[in-house]
Amino acid sequence: MGNVCGGTSSGGVDAPAGGAPTGKGAAGKYSHGPLLAARAKAAKDLDSCKKDEFAKKYDMKKLLGRGEYSKVVECINMVDHKRYAVKILEKANTERDAVVHEVAVTRMLAGFSHTVRVHEVLEDRLCYYLVLELCKGGELFDRILAKKHYTEAEAAAVMRVLLDFTEHAHREGIIHRDLKPHNILLLNEVPDERVLDSPIRIIDFGTSDYCADGERLTHRVGTPHYIAPEVLKEDYDKTADIWSLGVILYILLSGSMPFGGPNPEAITKMVAAGKYSLESAVWKGVSAEAKDILAAMLQMEPEKRATLQQLKNHPWFAVAAAGAGGAGAANGKADADVKAQGPAQAGAKVVKGDSALDGSVTQSDASEGEETARSVPPAPAAAPAAAANGSHPSAEVLEPQAVQVGVSA
Protein backbone atom coordinates (compact mmCIF):
# COMPACT_ATOMS: atom_id res chain seq x y z
CA MET A 1 0.00 0.00 0.00
CA GLY A 2 1.93 2.98 1.18
CA ASN A 3 5.47 3.51 2.40
CA VAL A 4 5.25 1.25 5.42
CA CYS A 5 8.31 0.17 7.33
CA GLY A 6 8.50 -3.53 7.91
CA GLY A 7 11.55 -4.31 10.04
CA THR A 8 12.71 -3.88 13.57
CA SER A 9 14.55 -0.90 14.90
CA SER A 10 15.93 0.49 18.11
CA GLY A 11 12.52 1.94 18.91
CA GLY A 12 10.55 -1.29 18.53
CA VAL A 13 8.74 -3.03 15.70
CA ASP A 14 7.50 -0.94 12.82
CA ALA A 15 4.02 -1.94 11.71
CA PRO A 16 1.81 -1.01 8.78
CA ALA A 17 -0.52 1.89 9.39
CA GLY A 18 -3.76 0.36 10.60
CA GLY A 19 -2.06 -2.80 11.82
CA ALA A 20 -1.47 -3.91 15.38
CA PRO A 21 -1.04 -0.95 17.72
CA THR A 22 2.46 -0.47 19.09
CA GLY A 23 4.38 2.39 20.65
CA LYS A 24 3.32 5.34 22.77
CA GLY A 25 -0.36 6.17 22.89
CA ALA A 26 -1.41 3.10 20.93
CA ALA A 27 -4.44 2.26 23.08
CA GLY A 28 -6.06 5.64 22.52
CA LYS A 29 -5.19 5.64 18.85
CA TYR A 30 -7.30 2.61 18.01
CA SER A 31 -10.28 3.72 20.07
CA HIS A 32 -10.67 6.90 17.99
CA GLY A 33 -14.39 6.91 17.15
CA PRO A 34 -14.40 8.39 13.63
CA LEU A 35 -11.51 6.19 12.48
CA LEU A 36 -13.10 3.06 13.94
CA ALA A 37 -16.40 3.90 12.23
CA ALA A 38 -14.67 4.51 8.89
CA ARG A 39 -12.72 1.26 9.20
CA ALA A 40 -15.91 -0.65 10.03
CA LYS A 41 -17.63 0.73 6.92
CA ALA A 42 -14.68 -0.11 4.66
CA ALA A 43 -14.55 -3.65 6.05
CA LYS A 44 -18.30 -4.03 5.55
CA ASP A 45 -17.99 -2.87 1.94
CA LEU A 46 -15.40 -5.57 1.28
CA ASP A 47 -17.41 -8.23 3.09
CA SER A 48 -20.60 -7.43 1.17
CA CYS A 49 -19.20 -7.34 -2.36
CA LYS A 50 -20.14 -10.24 -4.59
CA LYS A 51 -17.77 -12.60 -6.35
CA ASP A 52 -16.45 -11.17 -9.62
CA GLU A 53 -18.43 -7.95 -9.02
CA PHE A 54 -15.63 -5.78 -10.36
CA ALA A 55 -15.36 -7.72 -13.62
CA LYS A 56 -19.12 -7.45 -14.11
CA LYS A 57 -19.30 -3.71 -13.41
CA TYR A 58 -16.13 -2.29 -14.98
CA ASP A 59 -14.43 -2.44 -18.35
CA MET A 60 -10.68 -1.96 -17.98
CA LYS A 61 -8.92 0.31 -20.47
CA LYS A 62 -5.32 1.57 -20.54
CA LEU A 63 -2.68 0.85 -17.94
CA LEU A 64 -1.75 3.98 -15.98
CA GLY A 65 1.00 2.60 -13.78
CA ARG A 66 2.50 -0.59 -12.43
CA GLY A 67 4.21 -1.46 -9.17
CA GLU A 68 5.82 -4.63 -7.88
CA TYR A 69 2.55 -6.15 -6.67
CA SER A 70 -0.07 -3.76 -8.01
CA LYS A 71 -1.19 -1.68 -10.93
CA VAL A 72 -3.50 1.22 -11.74
CA VAL A 73 -5.77 0.95 -14.75
CA GLU A 74 -8.24 3.40 -16.23
CA CYS A 75 -11.66 1.79 -16.27
CA ILE A 76 -15.24 2.57 -17.31
CA ASN A 77 -18.31 1.76 -15.27
CA MET A 78 -20.52 -0.18 -17.67
CA VAL A 79 -23.70 1.18 -16.05
CA ASP A 80 -23.13 4.94 -15.85
CA HIS A 81 -20.20 5.02 -18.35
CA LYS A 82 -18.09 7.18 -16.02
CA ARG A 83 -14.32 6.80 -16.03
CA TYR A 84 -12.34 5.91 -12.93
CA ALA A 85 -8.86 4.79 -11.94
CA VAL A 86 -8.81 1.37 -10.31
CA LYS A 87 -5.94 0.35 -8.08
CA ILE A 88 -5.56 -3.43 -8.27
CA LEU A 89 -3.62 -5.07 -5.42
CA GLU A 90 -2.63 -8.71 -5.33
CA LYS A 91 -4.01 -10.41 -2.25
CA ALA A 92 -0.93 -12.59 -1.94
CA ASN A 93 1.11 -9.48 -1.13
CA THR A 94 -1.44 -7.16 0.47
CA GLU A 95 -2.89 -7.33 3.96
CA ARG A 96 -6.65 -6.88 4.03
CA ASP A 97 -6.39 -4.65 7.09
CA ALA A 98 -4.07 -2.29 5.21
CA VAL A 99 -6.69 -1.87 2.46
CA VAL A 100 -9.40 -1.26 5.05
CA HIS A 101 -7.29 1.30 6.87
CA GLU A 102 -6.34 3.30 3.79
CA VAL A 103 -9.89 3.46 2.51
CA ALA A 104 -11.08 4.48 5.98
CA VAL A 105 -8.58 7.34 6.33
CA THR A 106 -9.24 8.59 2.80
CA ARG A 107 -12.96 8.71 3.48
CA MET A 108 -12.37 10.45 6.81
CA LEU A 109 -10.60 13.26 4.96
CA ALA A 110 -13.12 13.46 2.12
CA GLY A 111 -14.55 16.62 3.66
CA PHE A 112 -11.60 18.48 2.18
CA SER A 113 -12.17 19.18 -1.50
CA HIS A 114 -8.63 18.28 -2.56
CA THR A 115 -8.65 14.75 -1.11
CA VAL A 116 -8.92 12.10 -3.81
CA ARG A 117 -12.30 10.32 -3.75
CA VAL A 118 -12.80 6.59 -3.26
CA HIS A 119 -15.79 5.49 -5.33
CA GLU A 120 -15.92 1.95 -3.97
CA VAL A 121 -13.74 -0.92 -2.81
CA LEU A 122 -14.21 -4.47 -4.11
CA GLU A 123 -12.44 -7.81 -4.01
CA ASP A 124 -12.38 -11.20 -5.66
CA ARG A 125 -10.40 -14.36 -5.02
CA LEU A 126 -7.08 -12.88 -6.15
CA CYS A 127 -7.20 -9.09 -5.80
CA TYR A 128 -8.51 -6.02 -4.04
CA TYR A 129 -9.90 -3.21 -6.23
CA LEU A 130 -9.89 0.41 -5.09
CA VAL A 131 -12.04 2.35 -7.54
CA LEU A 132 -10.88 5.96 -7.38
CA GLU A 133 -11.48 9.36 -8.85
CA LEU A 134 -9.55 9.55 -12.14
CA CYS A 135 -6.91 12.29 -12.12
CA LYS A 136 -6.16 12.94 -15.78
CA GLY A 137 -3.44 15.54 -15.28
CA GLY A 138 -0.83 13.22 -13.76
CA GLU A 139 1.59 13.92 -10.93
CA LEU A 140 2.75 17.30 -9.74
CA PHE A 141 6.22 15.71 -9.87
CA ASP A 142 5.96 15.33 -13.64
CA ARG A 143 5.03 18.99 -14.01
CA ILE A 144 8.09 20.02 -12.02
CA LEU A 145 10.21 17.97 -14.40
CA ALA A 146 8.57 19.55 -17.43
CA LYS A 147 8.75 23.12 -16.11
CA LYS A 148 12.09 22.66 -14.26
CA HIS A 149 10.67 24.86 -11.49
CA TYR A 150 7.53 26.73 -10.51
CA THR A 151 7.33 30.47 -10.23
CA GLU A 152 6.80 31.72 -6.71
CA ALA A 153 3.19 32.56 -7.55
CA GLU A 154 2.62 29.00 -8.78
CA ALA A 155 4.45 27.50 -5.81
CA ALA A 156 2.43 29.65 -3.39
CA ALA A 157 -0.86 28.49 -4.94
CA VAL A 158 0.16 24.85 -4.51
CA MET A 159 1.42 25.42 -0.96
CA ARG A 160 -1.83 27.10 0.10
CA VAL A 161 -3.75 23.97 -0.87
CA LEU A 162 -1.23 21.70 0.85
CA LEU A 163 -1.28 23.78 4.03
CA ASP A 164 -5.09 23.79 4.03
CA PHE A 165 -5.15 20.03 3.47
CA THR A 166 -2.63 19.36 6.23
CA GLU A 167 -4.53 21.63 8.61
CA HIS A 168 -7.74 19.73 7.85
CA ALA A 169 -6.06 16.34 8.30
CA HIS A 170 -4.43 17.34 11.58
CA ARG A 171 -7.74 18.74 12.85
CA GLU A 172 -9.24 15.32 12.18
CA GLY A 173 -6.36 13.73 14.09
CA ILE A 174 -4.65 12.32 10.98
CA ILE A 175 -0.95 12.58 10.14
CA HIS A 176 -0.16 11.81 6.48
CA ARG A 177 3.51 10.79 6.88
CA ASP A 178 4.28 10.65 3.15
CA LEU A 179 3.58 14.05 1.63
CA LYS A 180 5.57 14.42 -1.61
CA PRO A 181 5.00 15.62 -5.20
CA HIS A 182 4.32 12.05 -6.36
CA ASN A 183 1.29 11.99 -4.07
CA ILE A 184 -0.17 15.21 -5.47
CA LEU A 185 -2.11 14.76 -8.71
CA LEU A 186 -3.72 17.17 -11.15
CA LEU A 187 -7.40 16.40 -11.66
CA ASN A 188 -7.56 17.72 -15.23
CA GLU A 189 -5.27 17.67 -18.24
CA VAL A 190 -3.81 21.14 -18.69
CA PRO A 191 -0.71 22.50 -20.46
CA ASP A 192 2.30 23.28 -18.28
CA GLU A 193 1.80 27.02 -18.62
CA ARG A 194 -1.73 26.66 -17.18
CA VAL A 195 -0.94 24.21 -14.42
CA LEU A 196 -2.89 26.25 -11.85
CA ASP A 197 -6.09 25.83 -13.88
CA SER A 198 -6.46 22.27 -12.63
CA PRO A 199 -7.56 21.40 -9.10
CA ILE A 200 -5.12 19.12 -7.31
CA ARG A 201 -5.80 15.93 -5.39
CA ILE A 202 -3.80 14.53 -2.47
CA ILE A 203 -3.47 10.77 -2.52
CA ASP A 204 -1.76 7.85 -0.74
CA PHE A 205 -3.06 7.39 2.77
CA GLY A 206 -1.49 3.97 3.29
CA THR A 207 1.04 5.37 5.76
CA SER A 208 -1.37 7.82 7.41
CA ASP A 209 -2.38 7.21 10.98
CA TYR A 210 -4.30 8.69 13.87
CA CYS A 211 -2.27 11.07 16.03
CA ALA A 212 -3.98 13.07 18.77
CA ASP A 213 -2.74 16.47 19.88
CA GLY A 214 0.24 15.90 22.15
CA GLU A 215 0.62 12.26 21.09
CA ARG A 216 4.02 10.91 20.03
CA LEU A 217 4.47 8.26 17.35
CA THR A 218 7.39 5.83 17.07
CA HIS A 219 7.12 4.06 13.69
CA ARG A 220 9.84 5.02 11.23
CA VAL A 221 7.68 5.55 8.16
CA GLY A 222 8.13 7.63 5.01
CA THR A 223 10.19 8.31 1.89
CA PRO A 224 13.87 9.18 2.50
CA HIS A 225 13.97 12.51 0.64
CA TYR A 226 10.89 13.83 2.46
CA ILE A 227 11.03 12.21 5.89
CA ALA A 228 11.50 14.49 8.92
CA PRO A 229 14.62 14.09 11.10
CA GLU A 230 12.56 13.30 14.21
CA VAL A 231 10.85 10.41 12.38
CA LEU A 232 14.29 8.85 11.94
CA LYS A 233 14.68 9.15 15.72
CA GLU A 234 11.32 7.37 16.18
CA ASP A 235 9.82 10.10 18.34
CA TYR A 236 7.56 12.56 16.53
CA ASP A 237 4.13 14.14 16.21
CA LYS A 238 2.04 15.75 13.47
CA THR A 239 4.61 18.50 12.88
CA ALA A 240 6.60 15.95 10.85
CA ASP A 241 4.21 16.66 7.97
CA ILE A 242 5.32 20.31 7.98
CA TRP A 243 8.92 19.28 7.31
CA SER A 244 7.75 17.27 4.29
CA LEU A 245 5.90 20.34 3.00
CA GLY A 246 9.15 22.28 3.31
CA VAL A 247 10.94 19.74 1.13
CA ILE A 248 8.16 20.03 -1.45
CA LEU A 249 8.48 23.82 -1.45
CA TYR A 250 12.24 23.59 -1.96
CA ILE A 251 11.67 21.35 -4.97
CA LEU A 252 8.94 23.57 -6.43
CA LEU A 253 11.15 26.65 -6.28
CA SER A 254 14.42 25.13 -7.44
CA GLY A 255 13.74 21.87 -9.27
CA SER A 256 16.27 20.26 -6.91
CA MET A 257 16.20 17.98 -3.89
CA PRO A 258 17.41 19.61 -0.66
CA PHE A 259 18.77 16.32 0.67
CA GLY A 260 20.52 14.00 -1.78
CA GLY A 261 22.46 10.79 -1.86
CA PRO A 262 23.02 7.69 -4.00
CA ASN A 263 20.93 5.44 -1.75
CA PRO A 264 18.38 5.65 1.10
CA GLU A 265 21.08 5.41 3.77
CA ALA A 266 23.02 8.36 2.34
CA ILE A 267 19.84 10.41 1.94
CA THR A 268 18.75 9.86 5.53
CA LYS A 269 22.22 10.93 6.71
CA MET A 270 21.68 14.23 4.91
CA VAL A 271 18.21 14.58 6.41
CA ALA A 272 19.52 13.85 9.89
CA ALA A 273 22.14 16.59 9.44
CA GLY A 274 19.46 19.01 8.25
CA LYS A 275 21.91 20.88 6.00
CA TYR A 276 20.63 22.26 2.72
CA SER A 277 21.95 24.95 0.40
CA LEU A 278 20.38 28.20 -0.78
CA GLU A 279 23.66 29.59 -2.09
CA SER A 280 23.82 28.17 -5.60
CA ALA A 281 22.82 30.10 -8.72
CA VAL A 282 19.41 28.44 -8.83
CA TRP A 283 18.35 30.49 -5.76
CA LYS A 284 19.50 33.90 -7.00
CA GLY A 285 16.05 34.82 -8.30
CA VAL A 286 14.13 33.54 -5.26
CA SER A 287 12.77 36.12 -2.82
CA ALA A 288 14.01 36.53 0.74
CA GLU A 289 10.48 35.82 1.97
CA ALA A 290 10.45 32.46 0.18
CA LYS A 291 13.74 31.52 1.80
CA ASP A 292 12.38 32.60 5.18
CA ILE A 293 9.25 30.44 5.03
CA LEU A 294 11.39 27.55 3.82
CA ALA A 295 13.65 27.90 6.86
CA ALA A 296 10.58 28.02 9.11
CA MET A 297 9.41 24.68 7.69
CA LEU A 298 12.79 22.94 7.56
CA GLN A 299 13.49 23.72 11.20
CA MET A 300 15.36 20.82 12.78
CA GLU A 301 13.75 21.25 16.20
CA PRO A 302 10.06 20.33 15.86
CA GLU A 303 8.99 22.52 18.77
CA LYS A 304 10.50 25.55 16.99
CA ARG A 305 9.03 24.67 13.59
CA ALA A 306 6.40 27.10 12.35
CA THR A 307 2.79 26.09 12.91
CA LEU A 308 0.39 25.66 10.02
CA GLN A 309 -1.40 28.87 10.97
CA GLN A 310 1.87 30.80 11.10
CA LEU A 311 2.80 29.48 7.69
CA LYS A 312 -0.58 30.38 6.19
CA ASN A 313 -0.10 33.96 7.44
CA HIS A 314 3.51 34.25 6.25
CA PRO A 315 4.37 37.41 4.22
CA TRP A 316 5.69 35.26 1.39
CA PHE A 317 2.19 34.61 0.08
CA ALA A 318 1.60 38.34 -0.41
CA VAL A 319 5.02 38.74 -2.05
CA ALA A 320 4.39 35.79 -4.38
CA ALA A 321 0.93 37.10 -5.30
CA ALA A 322 2.44 40.50 -6.13
CA GLY A 323 5.00 38.84 -8.38
CA ALA A 324 8.08 39.88 -6.40
CA GLY A 325 10.84 37.34 -6.82
CA GLY A 326 8.46 35.28 -8.90
CA ALA A 327 11.02 34.24 -11.47
CA GLY A 328 12.55 31.76 -9.06
CA ALA A 329 15.06 29.67 -10.95
CA ALA A 330 13.60 30.76 -14.25
CA ASN A 331 16.00 33.43 -15.43
CA GLY A 332 18.31 32.20 -18.14
CA LYS A 333 21.50 33.17 -16.34
CA ALA A 334 20.59 31.10 -13.31
CA ASP A 335 19.81 28.06 -15.46
CA ALA A 336 23.07 28.49 -17.35
CA ASP A 337 25.02 28.79 -14.11
CA VAL A 338 23.39 25.64 -12.76
CA LYS A 339 24.36 23.66 -15.86
CA ALA A 340 27.91 24.97 -15.65
CA GLN A 341 28.24 24.08 -11.97
CA GLY A 342 26.72 20.62 -12.25
CA PRO A 343 24.42 18.95 -9.75
CA ALA A 344 26.99 18.68 -6.96
CA GLN A 345 26.90 22.44 -6.54
CA ALA A 346 23.42 23.28 -7.72
CA GLY A 347 21.65 20.72 -5.56
CA ALA A 348 20.31 17.27 -6.33
CA LYS A 349 18.43 17.78 -9.58
CA VAL A 350 14.99 16.28 -9.75
CA VAL A 351 14.35 13.74 -12.51
CA LYS A 352 11.73 11.04 -12.76
CA GLY A 353 11.68 8.73 -9.76
CA ASP A 354 13.10 8.88 -6.25
CA SER A 355 14.05 6.45 -3.54
CA ALA A 356 10.50 5.90 -2.39
CA LEU A 357 9.81 3.05 -0.05
CA ASP A 358 6.48 1.69 -1.17
CA GLY A 359 5.37 -0.90 -3.65
CA SER A 360 2.27 0.61 -5.21
CA VAL A 361 1.60 3.05 -8.02
CA THR A 362 0.13 6.43 -8.80
CA GLN A 363 -2.12 7.34 -11.71
CA SER A 364 0.89 8.11 -13.92
CA ASP A 365 0.64 7.19 -17.56
CA ALA A 366 3.43 4.63 -17.79
CA SER A 367 3.91 1.01 -18.73
CA GLU A 368 6.46 -0.11 -16.17
CA GLY A 369 6.94 0.32 -12.45
CA GLU A 370 9.93 0.82 -10.23
CA GLU A 371 10.94 -1.55 -7.50
CA THR A 372 11.57 0.10 -4.17
CA ALA A 373 12.95 -0.67 -0.75
CA ARG A 374 10.53 -1.29 2.09
CA SER A 375 12.22 0.22 5.14
CA VAL A 376 13.71 3.52 6.13
CA PRO A 377 17.29 3.16 7.36
CA PRO A 378 17.88 4.01 11.03
CA ALA A 379 18.96 7.54 11.85
CA PRO A 380 22.77 7.71 11.62
CA ALA A 381 24.92 8.34 14.65
CA ALA A 382 26.75 11.07 12.79
CA ALA A 383 25.92 12.92 9.60
CA PRO A 384 28.13 14.94 7.25
CA ALA A 385 28.10 18.70 7.47
CA ALA A 386 27.43 20.94 4.50
CA ALA A 387 30.38 22.08 2.45
CA ALA A 388 31.97 25.31 3.57
CA ASN A 389 30.94 27.14 0.41
CA GLY A 390 27.26 26.35 1.00
CA SER A 391 26.96 23.88 -1.85
CA HIS A 392 25.08 20.64 -1.37
CA PRO A 393 27.45 17.78 -0.38
CA SER A 394 27.04 14.45 -2.12
CA ALA A 395 24.18 15.71 -4.27
CA GLU A 396 22.90 13.02 -6.60
CA VAL A 397 21.15 12.98 -9.92
CA LEU A 398 18.25 10.56 -9.65
CA GLU A 399 18.01 8.04 -12.44
CA PRO A 400 14.92 8.25 -14.68
CA GLN A 401 12.35 5.55 -13.98
CA ALA A 402 9.04 4.69 -15.54
CA VAL A 403 6.58 5.37 -12.74
CA GLN A 404 6.89 6.57 -9.19
CA VAL A 405 5.11 4.28 -6.80
CA GLY A 406 2.64 5.62 -4.26
CA VAL A 407 -0.90 4.66 -3.35
CA SER A 408 -3.62 6.41 -5.32
CA ALA A 409 -6.41 6.07 -2.83
TrEMBL record:
Residues 1-10 have a biased composition (Gly residues). Residues 1-27, 348-409 are annotated as: Disordered. Coiled coil: none annotated. InterPro entries: CDPK_Ser/Thr_kinases (IPR050205), Kinase-like_dom_sf (IPR011009), Prot_kinase_dom (IPR000719), Protein_kinase_ATP_BS (IPR017441), Ser/Thr_kinase_AS (IPR008271). Keywords: ATP-binding, Kinase, Nucleotide-binding, Serine/threonine-protein kinase, Transferase. GO terms for molecular function: ATP binding; protein serine/threonine kinase activity. ATP binds at K87. Residues 58-317 form the Protein kinase domain. Belongs to the protein kinase superfamily. This is Protein kinase domain-containing protein. It comes from Chlamydomonas incerta.
